[in-house]
Structures are given as C-alpha cells and as structure tokens.
Design goal:
Blueprint (H helix, E strand, L loop, with lengths): L8 E7 L11 E4 L4 E2 L2 E8 L12 E15 L6 H8 L7 E3 L7 E7 L4 E17 L6 E8 L1 E5 L7 E2 L14 E4 L2 E2 L3 E9 L22 E9 L4 H7 L4 E8 L5 E11 L13 E8 L10 E5 L2
Parallel strand pairs: 2-11
Antiparallel strand pairs: 1-2, 1-7, 3-5, 4-5, 5-9, 6-19, 7-8, 8-9, 8-10, 8-14, 12-13, 12-16, 14-15, 15-18, 16-17, 17-18, 17-19
Length: 303
Amino acid sequence: MTIATGSRHNLSYVVEATFGTTPSSPGFTPIRHTGTTLGLSKDAVESEELREDRQVAHFRHGNKSVTGDINFELSYGGLDALLEATLCGAWATNVLKAGTTRRSYTVERHHQDIGKYLRSTGCQFNTMSLSIAPNSMVTGSFGIIGSGFTTSGSALGSSSYSAESTTAPFDSFSGSIKEGGSAIAIITALELNIDNGMEALYVVGSADTLLPSIGKSSVTGSVTAYFENTTLLDKFVAETTSSIEFTLTDAAGNDYIVLLPKVKYNSGNPEVSGPGAITVTLDFVALYNSSDASQIKITRVPA
C-alpha cells in the first residue's frame, strides 16, 4: 500500500478565462511552496425535527467552501504572477502596485506517489502574509477562496506543465530596511499582511459560491525593534506619518524592493519581561500615497 508523502507533492496553477472553468488545454505553472491546506469543506445542515426516540434522521451537506493557504519561501521571479493576483495589479517596467484587476485560477495538487490530482477551480488570492525574521528564510503564505473542487486519477487532456524557477529563496542576512527614508539596523522582525476582504456569496438553489465579493485593499503589518531610543515610539505617540522600505537580495544579487510610502503606527509599547534586551513592536497601516499612486510598491531589480 502506497501512502502519499509531502516530498512527492506538486502544486501548479493556470489562469481561467471564465471564472470557475479550467481552460480546455491548460498550461500549468508550478507553485514553489513549503505546504498547503487548500481543499474543500462543507457546512452541515442537520434537521431539527424532534422524535420520541431522540435520533437524528436527516442530515445534508450545505454550502461548499474551497479555502486554504499556500505557504512559501519568497524567491526572485518564483511567485510574480501570484503577487499580481494578490495585489490585483500588473507588473509594468518591473514595478507592481495595488490595483483593481481580478483574476481567477485553477489550482492543481498532484500527489505523484499515489497518482491522484486534486483540482480547485475559481481560486482567487485573498490574502498574503510575509515574515522577515533573523536567521531564517523570508517566508509567507497566500490565502485562497475558490468555488469548485474535484479529484481525478489522471492529468487533464492536452495539459502541459512548465518548469519551475530555480532562484534561491531570499534570506534575512541580505538586503536592508529603511524607516522614514533612513537605514535602520535595530529591526529584529518585520511582518507584512495584505487582505482583499473577499467573501463567498451563496444563493438559494445552489451550494456553490458565486464570484466572491471583494473589499478594500488592506496593507498592514508590524515592525519589532530593539528599544534604544524613542524615535519610533514618538511617531506612534504623535501620529506622525512615516514610510517603510525593505530590500530583499538573493545569493545571485537579484533584488525585490518593497516600499510602503505612507504608513502610520497604531500601537507601540516597550514591554519588559525579564533582564534581557527590550524590544518594542509597532503595528502599522499603509495608506494610499498620491505620488506613488498606491499604498504599496514592489520593484524587482535583476542582478
């Protein structure tokens, strides 16, 4: 008996021309990932009928929900199309900003050791998190909302698969961080979160979701720094607008420069929990900046 293992798991996607419909001759692109929870769940609809024997006689599956996360290590060029999908933008002259273009995808999981395919259709990228911490790779996660789910023992007819990129993941040893336009070396962690506020929509007569609604583009996060002065804390106290820019550099010299041109800190407290070094964590929200025409700007710089 063969048991599926993560070491033989492949994940890929193809853009849908029509929401929820896989192209007839799909050209799949691999998704470099470290794990995924993408799959189908259903609401439970149980009869409330009262019986003298106390038994439950009727039970149905309710609304379907295709959701889950795709975890990754960020690499240059490895996830550019999915960054577009999450920001609802488009790369232009190596620059990506938040926009309003919605895209849907078929995401396929292939368990090669047991020969099974799990396909989620109508997938939209709702959220993204990014984490930069000392002594680690730059990691993140995409949050997905989809509409349909099927399993199969074979690849789709006329499908093709491109080779995945081989660039090295970004790490926390390279690159730099700027706060308020100045390089800052006391940052110990940086978290970035993007949320499109998507919600599944259901109607009477079907258990499937319609095209999900979409909300505001929310870009938030936090910076954690050693507490050596009150420069950052004073910005929170005075509600001072600032900026955050971090550059990620891989082993080959390729860069991603992520700019949040206008941020406001909305928390900050140097908590003491023992005799060691004190840090302060400041949560922030990124705001629209007219000169950049976006609340976030990602620039890719090839080596």
